[in-house]
Amino acid sequence: MGALIKKEIHAAVSQQEEGQYLTFLIGGEMFAISILGIKEIIEYGNLTTVPMMPDFIRGVINLRGAVVPVVDMSARFGRTASEVTRRSCIVIIEVEADDEKQDVGVVVDSVSEVLEIPAAEIEPAPSFGARIRADFISGMGKVNGKFVIILNADRVLSVDEMAMLSGASSTEIAQAELV
Amino acid sequence: MSLDLDQALQTYIAEARELLQDMEDSLLRLEVDPNDADTIGAIFRAAHTIKGSAGLFGLDPIVSFTHIVEDVLDRVRDGDVVIEANLIAVLLESGDHMLHLVDVVAAQGGQLDAEAIARESGLRVRLQAYQDDSEMSHAVQVETEIPLQSSGGGLVETDNWHISLRFGQNVMRDGMDPLSFLRYLSTLGEIVSITTMFDALPPADEMDAESCYLGFEIDFKSDADKATIAGVFEFAREGSLIHILPPHSKLTEYIELIRSLPESETRLGEILVTTGALTQQELEAGLSEQQTSARPDGSTTPLGEILVEQRSVEHEVVQAALDKQTQSKDSKNKENRYIRVHADKLDELINMVGELVIAGAGVSLLAQRVSDNGLQEATSVMSGLVEEIRDGALRLRMVPIGETFNRFQRVVRDVGRELGKDIELVITGADTELDKTVVEKIGDPLMHLVRNAMDHGIESASIRQSRGKSAKGTLRLNAYHDSGSIVIEIVDDGGGLNRDRILQKARERGLIAPNVTPPDHEIFNMIFEAGFSTAEAVTSISGRGVGMDVVKRNITALRGTVNLDSAVGQGTTVSIRLPLTLAIIDGFLVGVGKSSYIVPLDMVQECIELTENDRQLTRERSYLNLRGEVLPFVMLRDHFEVEGAGARRENVVVVTCAGQKAGLVVDELMGEFQTVIKPLGKIFSTLRGISGSTILGSGEVALILDVPSLVQQAVNRETHQVSTRQLTH
User: Fold this and answer.
1) Which residues contact B409 (CB under 8 A, 6 or more apart)?
2) Which ipTM value was assigned to this complex?
3) Between β-strands A20-26 and A110-116, what pairing exists: parallel, antiparallel or unpaired?
4) In this predicted model, what pLDDT tens digit does every residue of B175-230 receive, in sequence order?
5) What are the two backbone dihedrals, phi and then psi, of residue B478, each rounded to the nearest 5 degrees?
6) What is the Cβ-side half-sphere exposure of residue B15, based on CA atoms within 13 angstroms?
7) Cβ pair A67:B355 closer than 8 A
8) CA angle at residue B363 from B359 to B365, to 5 degrees?
9) Option in B355, B700, B720 nearest A65 (CB)
10) What's the rounded Cα separation, in Å, for the pair B618 and B613?
11) Fewest CB atoms within 10 Å of the CB: B11, B419, B525, B618?
12) Residues 6+ apart with CB under 8 A from B710
């Protein structure tokens, strides 16, 4: 199995440190996600592509015997798919859908650090201007005088929505072929 | 404590369901052989146990209804009531109602709805016709017998039963609440007085809150007989001291009772006097008399022995005890043969074995790379063992199909009656085993097919006779193993399918072009298309055309196939072919581009190389000449839109599905592979053409191809392409 860069960070998290966020880069822009849902971060590799799926689903990986889907965050935002570099990582996040927990991997360009952002330093999401869907953003964190977009993992990685989109895209493909 | 009771209740519910199933089977057996005493006994015991345990849990609705059923069964057992068709019908319905009671009252803790109550009162009236005119006469008889049998010693005056209870310490740990026994006892009569005996209670610091230290002295007024009262405590008998003295027992018996109990004689005596079981004079007289004729080992003589000696124990009590003994012996045998295991534990084990298979494949791969002979030998021994473990683990989940088949005895009987047809169900191959998950899901499709065969397949008696067949129709359920799958056949000897009618209907619905006539078996299998019904009349049982397509869909979902064959005037055979297990399959590994795919091995017919000549032609057409046969194929590379240049060589995997051959063009053939199926997540729920995934020895994920849906996709695509081309031209 691939070497683990940082293994199971959440093990060290105690109750009161709710304001901890993992920051990472996607397309040169910094994003943050609450570390509560993050299970581990692994090296990018051994990915099996699944045919006939939309761009934002990169494929599946074998995570110690479990088959886990991997989502390209950049493509999910409607931008171009991330390019794989030496620093590319897969962040394994646990999301909840219909009371069922499912692990989803997310491809990011590189992982930066774990930050503490106090609640007072978090601004509500702007209704537009961030150039990603407003419901994906749970808030704007102020870090060293700069804004970091804190993502709402359950919305960005909504299994239902992604399943629906892939269903729609495969019929699109089918229709495109007909013309 | 309450948790234990909950668990016990769950056990009760499971047991009651099983007992009711047994009861139903036995009743159906009685229809064939009405005088089989063993079967009658089994039915009675089932009802008796259900009632008895229901009493323990205070499930009064079950107790009160089952009591009537038990009464009728008791009379059947005694030969007072003769088994006949109506009685069996009533008892079968009563069994259904009891099942409903168990579901509603015990499992959900709810109340019966109005409909069920109406049904129950209807059943009660019908059962009463078989019940004894006066339930009392039995008990009265007993009461008069006892004084006749007793000799000397003097009888005590009271006409109450006296019951001494000393519960075993473990009674609560075994999931029983002493109070529930008393509550159940009070349904049989009136508890005149009760004294709690807490002499066994240890000092507070030594006391274990989970142990029961209590005993009771009860005076009980009831017309029930001794076996019934003893039956109340049946479940606590083990480890507990229970003495039951009938009314007007001999004084000596009371004295023996006093001696056999752990508490001191005087204290017990006092209690018996204060509760009115004995008068002071009786007690004194008894004690002194007992002293004069005391045996050397006096108090250790078991009461039961004395009772038998004095011939005051009723014959029925002995009989009941014997019954009970054989019964517990039976259940012990069963326990020896079966262990109840939670299905989740088994699933977990199978999962782990799946992981082991994958890990083993990884080790073998590495060993091959290292090319160390000793290591390779060791891994091959290990692979052999792993394979055996896998087979063994999968076998744990295998259950015989007989249980599922037997359920249809009742269905055939009821539906036959409803339709006014005399139909016999013949079951063969009941021992054939298949995976439990498959068994659970095959019930509904089978039900549809059986009902269909009875409704449309088998003709009415008059038609049968006019066609020179016996008036009685035969429906056959058969199962057998055939090369890694199980085949289930539903065979009827009815009129067969009307080929022309199906053809006509299929043409009407545009499923078959007007000028084409496909072979017969294809026409017959049209009835599995959605909304396809040739029945002239819709009956309550079938004919709406929903069903057959659902049957097919359910079976396909289990990775199985269904096929239908029919001969006019001779009958119809539906064969369902199912994989033995859903967890692990034999796969054939192929490569396309950088990815690996698994084709289920049982679908692979052969592999051929795609010749240079054919490759040239693939631009224009998608079929091959396979030894004079036309073989349409799907280019997986194109179908899956794999990027990159094509491989230098390509191969064709020839697969069959639903009797149709097709080719899958792949780059590389990598051979057989033990495939542990891992479902793809919900994200991929809309994906067609891929049915799941597996993990290869290298740790990579490979996708399992869903061949039927792939072929279907290819068909759809081509149809659309052709039609759009026609439009544009």
Assistant:
1) B25, B28, B425
2) 0.80
3) antiparallel
4) 677 777 777 777 777 777 787 877 777 777 777 777 777 788 788 777 777 777 77
5) -135, 145
6) 17
7) no
8) 115
9) B355
10) 9
11) B11
12) B634, B639, B664, B689
Q: How far apart are CA B532 and CA B546, in angstroms?
A: 7
Q: What number of C-beta contacts closer than 8 Å exist between A and B?
A: 89
H helices of B620-706, in order, are 636-639
Smallest CA-to-CA distance from B651 within B682, B685, B615, B605 is with: B615
What letter represents residue A40's amino acid? E
Nearest CA in chain A to B676: A65
Q: Note the residue count of chain A.
A: 179
Backbone angles phi, psi at B368, to 5 degrees: -65, -40
Q: What is the largest CA-CA distance in chain A?
A: 58
> What is the rounded CA–CA span in Å between residue B649 and residue B635?
13
For residues A57-66, one letter each, b for 16 or more C-beta atoms within 10 angstroms of the residue's C-beta and e for the rest, the string is bbbbbbbeee
Element (H, E) at B724: helix B707-728
With residue B287 as reference, give the H or E element that holds it.
Answer: helix B280-292
- H or E segment to which residue B691 belongs: strand B690-695
Q: What is the pTM of this model?
A: 0.51
Q: Which long-range contacts (CB under 8 A, 24 or more apart) does B77-84 make?
A: B77/B37, B77/B40, B77/B41, B77/B44, B80/B132, B81/B130, B82/B34, B83/B30, B83/B34, B83/B35, B83/B40, B84/B34
Please report where in the chains the tokens 């029983």 appear, as a residue. Answer: B176
Residue B642 at interface with chain A, using a CB cutoff of 8 Å: yes
pLDDT per position as a tens digit, B28-85: 888 877 777 888 888 888 888 888 888 777 788 888 888 888 888 888 888 788 888 8
User: What CA–CA distance (Å, rounded) separates A69 from A97?
Assistant: 14
Q: Determine whether the interchain pair A174/B640 forms a contact, defined as Cβ–Cβ distance below 8 Å.
A: no
